[in-house]
Structure formats: C-alpha cells, structure tokens
Design a protein that fits this description.
Oligomer: single chain
Shape: elongated
Structural class: alpha/beta
Length: 437
C-alpha cells in the first residue's frame, strides 16, 4: 500500500534532520536520537498534529503506526494520554536504507558524490579563472559537507538538478565568450533558446558568484559586474583623449579604394569615444611622440583631468571599474601600440578596488603600469577626506599585500591597514571641481 501524505512528510522531516546533523558531515552514527515532537509538553515540530482536531490526530497517529510497523520509527505516548496523543517519535537508525527506499529518496551524500562528478566534468572544459575558483570551491564544500545546496560561501551550487544544469550551462557559455561581449538577451537566447531565461532564472546566481569570486569592492552595480563576464545591455564605449587613431582595412565590396582609412582622434581636445564593435573592426595607433598613458578609474576625476591638463602627448583613458573582456582587449591593443619610452600610469581610489585594478592591469595587460597619486603621501595630505574601514575590509587589504604585483605599493597598503582608512580619488579633484560639488 503506498505511503500517504503524513507518512511521507514525517519520514522526510526525520531524514532532513538526520542529514543536517554534524554527525552526517563526519560520516558518523549520531549519538542522540533523530526526533520529532508531535505534542510534548505543549511543544510540536509538526503543527498539523492539532490535539483540538480529533480526526486529524487519528490520521497522523495511523501514519506513525504504519511507519512503526515498517520498522522505520519508534514513538512514545504523551504521559497520561496512552492510546490518544503521541508525544514524540524518532528515526530507526538501523533501517536508514529502508527509509530512503520507502520515500524513493536518494541519500544526500550519494547526491553530493554525483554532483561533484558533474562539476568535475565541467571543470575539465572551462579556463576562466573566477569560474574555475567557484567550481573548485563548490566541489570542496560539497565533498566536505556531503550535501548540495545548503548555503555557505563555498557552496553556491543549487540543490536541484535543473538549476545546476542551467547555471553550469551559463558558466560554460560565458567561458566560451573569451574576450568578446554579448548583449544580455542575445546571450540568453543562444545559451538557453529563450531570450528571458537568463534574467529570470540564472542572472541572480551569476551575480552572486561574480561578487564573491572576482575583485569586487562592494560598489559595482549589476551592469558592471555582468560586463566583467562579457554580458552587456548595449555595446560598450571606450572614452579617451589624446594622440590615438583608428585605421580600417579597405572595404572593396562597397566599391572603395584599396587604401586604409584612418580616424585621428587627437583633434578632439575635449575627449572622444568609440563603440567596442567599431574598435574590433580597426587597428589602434598611437603617435610616436606619445609620452604617457593615464587610465583613470572614476569618471568625475577623468572629466576634471581633461579640463585641467592639456598635454597633447598624453593619452588619457577612462578606466571605470574592473574592466570587461572587451575593454581588456582595448587595453591590450594600447599596450601593443606603446611607443618606446612611453609610460603607463593608473589613477584609482586608494582602496581595495583601486589597488586590485592596478594589480590586474599589471597582471593581464602590461607589468610596467605605475600608480598615479596612490601613495602614503596623498593619504596624509588628504587625511580629512579619508573614510574608516571595518575589520572585514582590512582582511581584503591584507590579501592585497600577498600579491607580488603590488610589492611597490606595500608601504601605502600598510599605512591604510595601520590607520584603518581608505581614500576615494574624488578627494583629489581640483579646487574648482570640488567647489562645484
């Protein structure tokens, strides 16, 4: 005879409690009973057991009797209410396999082992660093806890098979993008065959993973995080000013000449920009007399710098937050076009985000990038504008001190850690700009 609703619910709750215990994680037999209180001293773990409803009590009692006859549970009557109210029941640990079969349920540790194998298969194919870190830590967390989908920083893998498959499919598709970018709806359509599925079913999980497994400083919005993964709402624009030109191969299909065409952006003294898609069609050139590149993290500082500084031999580039694959390709093109003796500087916040961006530029673009106004001297000079930081933030700064790319910045990082402060680069705006603010 098939199990009824209460038999399934009661046994499921008992198995849930069994799998949630520390003994399960250790693979040990529990020292205490795995118990549910039906009505013990007025306390109940099963609200459906309403002693004011005689018919409901009888139905649940019969369910407990049936489970007991199958040797799956033991039970005890409420004192003075023999044959009326059951006080508590507990799992028969000697018949666990039978309990799982009774519910047609797979033990959590068996599911965990299967999921680890599934993740391992995905790990063999992906190359993107933050995706590999997420998958690797998921395997470690699931193996350690012997359960899937129970939360924790290392266990963001969904508990259901369909959700896991959707998440892994999205991660593999992101990995395949490489240095290209794709509109969000197009990404969803090509990945899932549904233009809205990414937004409604997977996006939130991807954002959560990006926040934890990338150099997120806590300030970047959703669009910026997704750009980091190559998913965009619209094609990205690269903003700059200086001696840069973009040349294009001749388009003979339109009856043009066989000469390359070039756009000289140095004539736009108040700044210029072009679309990432146009950039991919052309080739970057820097004038031979270019003496310096300066990437600026914050847009207010970028605009202010353009107004205050007029060095025609300097290329100033708006960096923004953590650069996307498309902007990374732009930066690599600039690095490849650097004239001899041209220096590259980066000006960012004197905080975790600013220094992690500097480290990433050195690690992924060119090792010679120098910090601009990101030092202990400026921290002291603008001490009135510094902001206090929490202990968790100090841990992130300590982690930066472990990165070899930032060895020359260790004195500044040490000062920040000692004084528990950070400084946003807006504090360094020109007096005129600060007056306007």
């Amino acid at each position: 005879m098939p199990a009824n609703k209460h038999e399934k619910e009661i046994l499921s709750r008992l198995l849930d409690k069994y799998e949630a215990g520390s003994h399960f994680k250790k693979g040990e037999k529990p020292a205490r009973r795995i118990m549910l209180k039906l009505y013990d001293s007025g306390v109940s773990d099963y609200p459906a057991y309403d002693i004011e409803n005689a018919e409901q009590v009888e139905r649940i009692n019969r369910a407990v009797f049936a489970l007991h006859e199958e040797a799956l549970v033991f039970y005890a009557w409420m004192q003075g209410e023999q044959d009326h109210f059951i006080a508590r029941l507990w799992l028969n640990l000697e018949n666990l396999d039978k309990a799982y079969r009774f519910l047609n349920r797979q033990p959590a540790d068996h599911i965990a082992a299967e999921v680890c194998c599934e993740i391992g298969t995905v790990l063999e194919t992906v190359k993107t660093g933050w995706i590999r870190r997420f998958l690797t830590e998921s395997v470690e967390a699931i193996s350690d806890r012997r359960v899937v989908g129970r939360g924790g920083p290392g266990n963001r893998m969904p508990g259901t098979r369909e959700e896991r498959q959707d998440l892994c499919r999205a991660l593999c598709f992101i990995d395949s993008l490489g240095e290209t970018e794709m509109l969000e709806r197009v990404f969803s359509l090509r990945c899932f065959g549904d233009s809205k599925k990414f937004e409604t079913g997977v996006k939130k999980r991807i954002l959560d993973i990006l926040k934890y497994y990338t150099d997120w400083d806590g300030t970047a919005g959703e669009d910026e995080l997704l750009r980091f993964a190559g998913i965009v709402r619209y094609p990205q624009r690269f903003e700059f000013r200086g001696p840069l030109s973009l040349s294009f191969a001749p388009d003979l299909s339109q009856g043009g000449t066989d000469e390359r065409r070039s756009l000289d952006f140095s004539l736009l003294v108040n700044g210029a920009s072009f679309n990432s898609l146009d950039f991919r069609r052309g080739t970057i050139h820097l004038a031979p007399e270019t003496s310096r590149i300066l990437t600026i993290e914050n847009q207010a500082n970028y605009v202010d710098y353009l107004h205050q500084e007029k060095n025609k031999h300097e290329l100033v580039v708006y960096h923004g937050g953590q650069f996307s694959p498309a902007k990374g390709l732009f930066f690599k093109a600039l690095a490849a076009a650097l004239p001899a003796q041209c220096l590259w500087y980066h000006w960012g916040d004197i905080d975790y985000g600013g220094f992690s961006m500097l480290a990433r530029l050195r690690r992924e673009i060119t090792p010679g990038v120098l910090p601009y106004r990101m030092n202990e001297e400026d921290l002291r000079r603008y001490a009135a504008f510094t902001a206090p930081v929490k202990a968790s933030y100090l841990e992130k700064l300590q982690n930066l001190k472990g990165q070899a790319e930032l060895r020359d910045c260790f004195p500044c990082l040490a000062y920040m850690i000692t004084h528990r402060i950070r400084l946003e680069q807006e504090a360094l705006l020109s007096p005129a700009s600060l007056a306007q603010k």
